[in-house]
Amino acid sequence: MTFRKKVGLGGLLLLTLLCVFAVVSHFRAKGRLKAYYAELAASGEKVTIADLTPVFPYDSNGAPTVLKISGALKLAEFTPPMMSMIAPGVARVAWDQPDLSIDSSSASFKGKTNVWEALAGAVDGREAELAELRSTLTNSAFYFSLDYQQGFTLLLPHLAPLKKVEQQLVSAMMFDLHRQQHDLAMANLMAAVALPRIYTNEPLMISQMVRFALESIAIHATWEALQFDGWSEAQLAALQKNWEGIETLGDIQSALRMERAMGTSYFDRIRLHGYSSTMSLTPPPTSLIDSLSEFTEGAVENPGEALRTAVNKTVLWQFWKYIWSYDDEIEYSEFFRRTIRSIDTATRNENFGPVIEEQRVYTEDNEENYFDFMDEPNWAMGLGRMPRFWMGKFVIRGTNTRTIQQIAVTAIALKRYRLKHGRYPQGLENLVPDYLSELPRDYFDGQTLRYKLQPDGNFLLYSVGEDLKDDGGEPTTKNGKLHWRQGLDLVWPRAATPSEVTASPLATISED
């Protein structure tokens, strides 16, 4: 046998061994994934979209009516800037301002410079629609039937209109307070709080983020309302009960479970159709011919980078598709599984500090590479670590929302105590059991919300915030901006005096 034949046979043998290795590795990896899901199923864990899709056994649904009515209203175009900070820990009472200026350069305002004038025109003749909107939100089932099987390609056209509904209601409430229609203002506020309370059981992370935004808008409106001293005990008690009815933490876990199910089903789609940063189904990644063309074009400027890209899109992609993707899918699913378990423990303990610390490590380690990773994944790394980029932000936002809800409930209870006793209590324990069933929780560290009765008779109420450190109720931010949710501590603002409003430049708070 000649040397050339020996080399040829050796090469053929090596190629055969590589093919056998690839086939064996493929089926072993696929078997590991199958065994993993079998283990989850045996433990009773729901991991498929079908198992996690909510069922709504209601005969009626108020959601279409709410969106239809809201679409005909124009109040959202003139939403007053609520709870605007004029100094750290100090906010202006917007409804009490005789002239609340707005950006008259906007075409929506048609030259008006006073938001109250704009709202007067928007409300005129629309009371019947506002009444129907309030009635539907407070007396009807509310849900959206979604085809969750579409996975990450699922469209959610109702999310933006939902925020508009909330803005319509709080705009009406602010205008009612300004014109001293207090009972009507409370009715609109009750409907605004009801929306995030009844918009539940939509297990998607983006839907929950929108729900957090709805709660944020309602929180600002509640702060404004609490600056009015004419509410009755019955009105305040009803408002507090409305806020207490909002469940946040359970929906966070449901959203993560559905997100995991959609993600694991997306792995199948990627293996069949290729990857797209838009989550849509696309042709497979670059072919060998296309990669050679790209390599030729890029080799002149940066041959090393061009070679890396070409290898990533061809060789590494094939290894990922047929071998690595199965273990990658396990890693993806396990990350969600661990996070859900951590959140379940945090929910029982009413302390999300450990979860935030855990997620912060993932976020800080991966955030810089997020967009590069999404545009062009490194197939040697895979997609299993993808949720690490944004999971921490979602958990922190959910914890923030839940804690602010506790702060708002406590602020209402304090208002009720003062209504009866003529002063604020020495401590939060004085609110239990007549005004609160238990001491309010700071979900960032599991402790009771911090409260101090001030020498002037006002109070300081705060959470330690996302840095998990008690700075003694310090409302200033690290970047110097006026934003109450970004302070060193999460401090419930006090109302500015008229002289403080006059003397201080105003920076409008974001309502996101």
Spatial gap, N to C terminus: 77 Å
Q: Work out the helix count.
A: 16
Weakly predicted, low-confidence segments: 280-289, 507-512
Structural class by secondary-structure content: mainly alpha
Strand proportion: under 5%
Q: For the largest sheet, list the strands in their spatial order.
A: 1-2-6
Radius of gyration: 28 Å
> Could you report the average pLDDT, rounded to the nearest whole number?
86
- Number of strand elements: 6
Could you spell the SSE succession in H and E letters? Answer: HHHEEHHHHHHHHHHHHEEEEH
Overall number of domains: 3
Helix content: 55-70%
Q: Which keywords apply here?
A:
three-stranded antiparallel sheet; 512 residues; three-stranded mixed sheet; disordered C terminus; 16 helices; mainly alpha; 4% strand
Entry summary:
The protein is mainly alpha-helical. Helix content is 56%, strand content 4%.
Tell me what you see in this structure.
- The structure is a single chain.
- Helices cover 56% and strands 4% of the residues.
- It is mostly helical and 512 residues long.
- The protein has three domains: 1-45; 53-143 and 154-199 and 206-228 and 493-512, no CATH class; 246-473, no CATH class.
- The strands form two sheets. It has a three-stranded mixed sheet with strand order 1-2-6, with no helix packed on it.
- Helix 3 runs antiparallel to helix 5 (127-139).
- It is elongated, with a radius of gyration of 28 Å.
- The relative contact order is 0.10.
